[in-house]
Every structure is written in C-alpha cells, then in structure tokens.
Amino acid sequence: MILTGPAIAAARAAGEISIEPYDPGRVSPNAYDWRLGETLYVCDGQLDAARPTTATELAIPSDGFVLRPGVLYLGSTYEKTSSERYVQLLNGSRTIGALGIWVHVSAPLGHQGHAIHWTLEIRAAVEVRIYPRMTFGKLTFLHPFGAAASYQSHGLKYATSKGVEASRLYEELT
Question: Which residues are catalytic?
C-alpha cells in the first residue's frame, strides 16, 4: 500500500519517517518531491565491474552544469531519508524525464532502516543543464507485508553510505 501525501506528513510527524531537510511544501499527493544534491561524480572512461570506479568529483555550480550524453554521472539526493517502518521507492519525475534525464538507472528500492542520501545513476539523452538542489524526482513510501527486517542490522556493504557511492561489486568478484 502506498502512502498518500497526508499520510507521509503524519508518519513524519510521528517519527516513523525521517526526511532531512524537510519541507512540507514538497509533499505531493502520493510522494515527497526530492532534490538533487550539490555534488556530481563524473565516471572516467571504461568501467570494469571487477575494479573500483574512477571518477572526478565536482561541485555543481549555482549557474548550472551541462550533462552530456554517453557519460555516467553519480549524484545524490539533497535530502537524507529513512524509515524503520516503511519501504521507500525513489524515482525521477516526469518533468525531469521530459528533459531527457534518466535519474536512477537502477536500484530504486530503499529497504526498511536504510538511512541514506540516495546515490543516483544519472544519464542524459541530450545535453541538458542541471542545478544544485533542483527538484529531481519523487520518493514514495510503501507499507510492507510481513516481519520487518532493518537494512542496518544485516551488515550489507552499503549500510554506511553517506553520499555518492560508486559500485562496490568488485568486492564480490575479487
């Protein structure tokens, strides 16, 4: 079951959802409108799943940054979100998609208990200028069925993510 906007606001007020920083004006009918963070990692050259990703970090200037086709950018959400009670789903928005931006190529699921600034895998179909803290997508909350199993208690590799997190698949392959 998806939470409505009023249910998201009530769950946040009850301490069941954390969104920081929180702006009640960003609650929409069935989601929270999240923003792009202030930093991008531009992935360098050919990537190899068996090796750490090399990338150049850059602060997104206030006058914007032009995304180019054929380049993988890693970014993060401006907001840090978590919930021990609800499952989170992060998606781009229709307005961002209409600009030719794929916000989150994979992994839209936020497990119960995962407290993170989401890592975004960003691609552009055409050159497009983006800005720090611009609205970039929608975060929905779902009520799970069954016993809760907090992500933080499983000791998984991304449990301590604090921002942009490149692939760590190489840890399984080496």
Answer: 121
